[in-house]
Design a protein that fits this description.
homopentamer; alpha/beta; globular; Riboflavin synthase (chains A, B, C, D, E); transferase (chains A, B, C, D, E); riboflavin synthase activity (chains A, B, C, D, E); EC 2.5.1.9 (chains A, B, C, D, E); LS/RS_sf (chains A, B, C, D, E)
């Protein structure tokens, strides 16, 4: 039984954690999910490290929504840098599911983007955990999470591929 | 008996530490507060680490007020990066209560913002320490500290919710 | 038998990993290649660390394609910083083969640039692994990977040299 | 007997180390000062770490003067980040006394600013070393080093306070 | 017998390593130089760490030439941050001799600047290694490497001093 950690925030304006849980459960079995909600994105890295080191999680999905102001962009950079450090110190993947609040035009589109990115990254986390060689067949294929895939230089006219 | 560390600065123009202490005492019991005041925000991370490792604090609330100049913004980024590192090295949360001096229009509003953000983050720290699962019920709900909550994509017309 | 780790992404729009493998095999023998594909560039550092520490790789070639948006540029900086940290913690080289999506005018040129940079850095990795003193003969010679070499201040009129 | 480390540079255009030494000696006793001069600000962090770990210093005062060019501002950020890391790794304070070369209008004002900031931070270092609870009485009081204190939101008309 | 590590790159357009070696040999004795050439500046930090930890070097001189594009400036920042980290982890100085390709007007001036900065930093490295107290006599004197010294606020009319 593998343990998947899920870290999310009260700052975000969409419950991406719910999408992650639904998609993981629709994708496969053999894992248990442990959820840890923190106030904001800068609280995510230590929460992820605690889930890995104190709870034994094998991989983390970290959901956050950086705000639109310059200070929020700096916070996102600091949070991502922390997420990077935790991965390096623990040798565990943390799949970062960040949707910037200004990435979509309106609230409805923002919700749709959040849901889709969360689900597609949940699948990535599943494969990294259970079948790390799976993604090699899509190496260099221009995959995107939350948007249409953009394809590779080999098939520019075909548009993106779906996995 | 849990130990809550409080780090603040002489540079800030509002005594956020006082607000944190008042709010913590109004919220619950079972903890003792240890306060450590340093000159500026870049002195906060090592103070927090000393409180955790030398004094045994279980969580830290770190209050600071970055100045309005570009060099101050860089200092804030460095301080936040240090706060991040201390969390990652110690597996303890440090709740960062930073109010930028140019975040409010006048001194009076600045004081109100400082007081409110300090109090709301004090409550966050309390929950993370005594009931880490508490915040999950507000995951993705668009909570803000110091301002009105902005709500989630599910309830945009209802405006923010209060917890 | 040396072990060369190859990390690449599904986000990139060209299969640089394939170019690296072809060029390494055309350059010499005495090594085995271990490939690990991850979603995006921020997933590369921990993948590289796992290849080094869990699989015993002696050197890593890390291929990625940062997107054209400002947020992508930040991601590239965070990824590179992580790659730097992994090298410092493991004392192993990670040759970073990053091609920015907006570095070439069109998709065809982008593919050519990717292929060429990947191959020239594969050769660099080979030399660092098997003959670390090799590159000293080209110290300060203005070599470039993916573009024409620009030469040194000693031979500005001769243009770049090829190795 | 406490040991205060003093790190400064040949790049700076004012001998802030001299001001620090004078002010420390005028403030109290019970310490010895160990001085280490390096070329530039990016050489400061390792010098501070060597003073702490190889010489046993209890606290460091680090004086530097970042130049006015953009590349100098980046150097200042890197130096400050290194100073932060050394503090976190050693659990010792490093009081950063940086005066940017373009912070004052002319050379004379630059010298006055350097001298004053160095002296006021020397006092901060003294208190952090011998009486860490001293600064709490000035928490949130808008103290500044090198300039007039700006005061708190409680006393905006009174202007800054002096300690 | 001390061991001085020299790290340089094939990307640079001037052989600064040669200048460093010549100047060190003209300055004193009692050391041996170990040279390690890597492709670019981001490969320098781990090379320096390997020279220190695997070869026993006592100090490192690291020569590099960041390119003129924004992405090159980011690379320089990442490289410098890595050089900083290696120093902090090893307690050894790494004297960074970086000349930005756009720092001089033409190729000839670029070469002159490279040669001069490399030589003046070689002398700094020599003093830090054999006589660490030497530089204190020049503390706050406005020394520059590669350019004329700018002097201190005490002697603005005298211009720079030479050491």
């Amino acid at each position: 039984m593998k343990l998947i950690g899920l870290v999310d925030t009260t700052f975000a304006r969409f419950d991406m954690g719910r999408s992650v849980i639904q998609e993981l459960n629709a994708t496969g079995t053999g894992f248990r999910i442990m959820r840890y909600t923190v106030p904001g994105i800068k609280d995510i890295p230590v929460a992820a490290k605690k889930l890995i080191e104190e709870q034994g999680c094998d991989i983390i999905v970290a959901c956050g929504m950086p705000g639109p102001k310059p200070v929020d962009k700096i916070s996102a950079q600091i949070a991502s840098t922390g997420i990077m450090q935790v991965q390096i110190l623990t040798n565990k993947h943390i799949i970062e599911v960040f949707v910037h609040e200004d990435e979509a035009e309106g609230l409805k589109d923002l919700g749709i983007l959040c849901d889709r990115r969360a689900r597609e990254h949940a699948i990535n986390a599943y494969h990294l955990l259970f079948d790390p060689e799976y993604l090699t067949r899509y190496a260099g294929r221009g995959l995107r999470q939350g948007y249409e895939d953009v394809g590779s230089t080999d098939d520019p006219l075909k548009g993106g591929i779906r996995h």
